[in-house]
User: Fold this.
Amino acid sequence: MSQEKEHLQAIQDIKTMMERSTRFSSISGKAGIVVGILAVIVFAGIKWFNVTSVASLFVVMVGTLILALSIGLYLSIAKAKKEGAAIFDTTAKRFLVQFFIPLIVGGILCLIFAYHGDYTYIPSIMLIFYGFALLHASKFSLDTIKNLGYLELIIGLLAAAFTTYGMWFWVIGFGLLHVIYGFIIYTKYEK
Amino acid sequence: MKNFIDTLNKAFESRIRLGIMSILMVNEQVDFTMLKELLQITDGNIASHISGLEKLGYVSVTKQFVGKKPNTSYAVTTTGKDAFTMHLQALEQLIQSKK
Assistant:
């Protein structure tokens, strides 16, 4: 009997080592919630002050994105440190590289569109490339973010199809979904 | 029952070796520091287990310089992969046979 336990333990060890050496699991659920709320506030602000100039909308959106990424990174690093993730460097680096490749391409594409003075598809591009970034990086992190990636892709396509509601899809994708998934990650992995 | 136990590979009996192999199976290349951090054991301990696995032809060792620092990285060989997969299958069968 004790031998059987030993074998089960061995399998458990193997699984843990494989997981721990490949996945960056310190994604912060709290960061998701904070970022989501931030997006909703920005959206409310835009509606409240009735910002309609596309150029200023663009600036606000890019600013929000940068702020959101910083919050996400900061809270995730804090979480990793608290967990004492010794391998933070290797797995996090891999995750971040995978995450930022699609994101940077999408960002540049947005800038090119803005340069041409065409802001119509910018919410859609942001959502779609963010979706791909999540999908791409999910292999090196929590499985949950893969589903979030799929949803962002769908919402991104909808935003492209119904361009007049672009901002609404933007707030659903970056606001609502982040709050929901932040909460899911928080309850699933942090409690 | 006995034949299952026979197929268990003696080389993987130690938990450290099992850990080393698990990490190498899912990563293309792993350097010494990462192994140490993951397994949380001493340098000498890792080195001795690694050289054991290397002698069996399960692990390949690459030494190179990154800038001025020597850097040793490890990868699993095809033989090692096969041996580890067999070992896993044996473990699985053992557990299933006892159910």
Q: What stands out?
A: Residues 29-189 of chain A form one domain. Helices of chain A lie at 2-22, 29-48, 54-82, 88-115, 122-138, 144-161, 166-189.
